[in-house]
Amino acid sequence: ANNKHLYEHFPPLTIWGTFPVYLFGGPNVTPEKFREQVQKGIPLNVGNIGINGHQYLWLTNLKSPVQFNMTSYKGLSQQMVDILGGTLDYGTSNLTTLHDMVNEGKIHPIMISTHTRSSLYKDVPTAKELGFEGESVTGSLGFIARKDTDPEAFQAMSDVIRKIISRNEVFQSFGKKGVNIVSLNPAESRKYADKVIAHTKKLKFAKE
């Protein structure tokens, strides 16, 4: 929801969910090892999806006692290959598709990008709790349509999508994955997007 140019041509039908981002370690990188590296000032090698996304913005805008060496990946799968293979210590993700790996101990959530802990991983501290200062950052999920879409069709599509999202089984399914269901109408979605865009203007971005 932080792309102003996108919404100029593709306004949102609905922003239906938000989610936090996690910094997580690979099989041999525990929260204890992370704290030790931070205390010793050892640079952290971290993967993120794309460039200038919410994951990059969160970490690079933290006031940190250590340096984050960021490596951008085109997708989560390649990042996970390097994480599980031991060539990358840390990754970033919303973890919605990685719960099994967390439960099996293959990856270890280190800290969350919001100022409050998640009910999904209650033991995972916030960045502030670990001594980092920075902004609360969340990602969002939604649907968009072309600017020239017929207004009645635009509203009808939004209504159908939000009706599906509001179903109890859908609500519970995404809730178990750590997604906060908001199901905003088009006007609310644009207002939300404008707020996020204004917020991200305060943050530093990578050079394209």
Structural summary, described in words:
The structure is a single chain. It is built from 8 helices and 8 strands; from the N terminus they run αββαβαβαβαββααβα. The protein has helices at residues 4-9, 31-40, 54-60, 76-85, 99-103, 151-165, 168-175, 186-200; strands at 12-20, 22-25, 44-49, 68-73, 90-93, 108-112, 138-144, 180-181. The strands form 3 sheets. It has a 3-stranded antiparallel beta sheet, sandwiched between helices. It has a 3-stranded antiparallel beta sheet with strand order 5-2-6, covered by helices on one side. The radius of gyration is 18 Å and the shape is globular. The two termini are 19 Å apart. Helices cover 37% and strands 21% of the residues. With 208 residues, it is of the alpha+beta class.
Any chance you could write out the topology, listing elements then pairs?
Blueprint: H1 4-9, E1 12-20, E2 22-25, H2 31-40, E3 44-49, H3 54-60, E4 68-73, H4 76-85, E5 90-93, H5 99-103, E6 108-112, E7 138-144, H6 151-165, H7 168-175, E8 180-181, H8 186-200
Parallel strand pairs: 3-4
Antiparallel strand pairs: 1-7, 1-8, 2-5, 2-6
